[in-house]
Amino acid sequence: MTADNPLEKYFRDNDGRLIHKWMHYFDVYHRHFERFRGQPIVLVEFGVSQGGSLQMWRDYFGDQATIYGVDIDERCASLDGPGTHVLIGDQEDRDFLRSVGERTGPIDVLIEDGGHTMGQQLATFEEMYPLVKEDGVFLIEDLHTSYWEEYGGGFRRPGTFMRRAKRLTDQLNAWHSQDDRFVVDDFTRTTRSMHFYDSIVVFEKGRVVEPHHEKTGTASFDT
Ligand SMILES: C[S@@+](CC[C@H](N)C(=O)[O-])C[C@H]1O[C@@H](n2cnc3c(N)ncnc32)[C@H](O)[C@@H]1O
User: Fold this and answer.
1) pLDDT in tens, 157-208
2) How far is the CA of 152 from the centre of ligand 1 (A)?
3) From the CB of 19, is ligand 1 less than 6 Å away?
4) pTM score, whole prediction
5) Ligand 1: which atom is nearest the Cα of residue 142?
6) Is 195 a catalytic site residue?
7) pLDDT for 16-46, tens place per residue?
8) Of these residues, 30, 85, 116, 213, which one is catalytic?
9) What's domain 6-205's superfamily in CATH?
């Protein structure tokens, strides 16, 4: 256990609603989420299950956070309460996703831990990523399903989330393209970095302007 990780400590001490997590996720969460603690953020988590993670996020981010959980299971609606809202629907249904966005408005932190099929992950990323604020974070987990047939995955199979994520690493570098088929787009302009971990990709947003380089100093082998 990482002694100073408050999320892992909460998880270990948890005697509230059930949480089920891969243990290496806590380090990733804390690394990318710490700067939002105590702030009046909007957090959206796809995948509520028994509600334990919503309680964990409340404890970690504090009372000023507005938290939305999204799940297809109507039983999750009973977890709706002050400052924590539960929206019921299918994350593969793009009309539903648009209604989620209308309800939440711009998002600071989005955690995608829903049903984990390729269709669900890609629809949620495509519809919700533009709603994540400049400086916000989109974290998608359990991406091992990109390699599992029962979820639509397979090694280097087209149409998986990991395949899409790997293509997006090119898009980060589109400023340097020499090919008309490969151009700067909204993703290039709004994504500061992508971070790959086992089963997780984190997208850190930011306003990105065309990179430039400079030289300083005067001594060189050519003068
Ligand atoms: C892995 S669990 C979420 C775990 C929870 N975040 C936690 O850490 O305790 C996945 C959840 O996704 C929900 N889910 C499955 N398919 C879905 C879909 N198509 N749309 C929305 N939610 C879905 C399931 O009902 C389940 O509650």
Assistant:
1) 999 999 999 999 999 999 999 999 999 999 999 999 999 999 999 999 999 9
2) 17
3) yes
4) 0.96
5) 1
6) no
7) 999 999 999 999 999 999 999 999 999 999 9
8) 116
9) Vaccinia Virus protein VP39 (3.40.50.150)
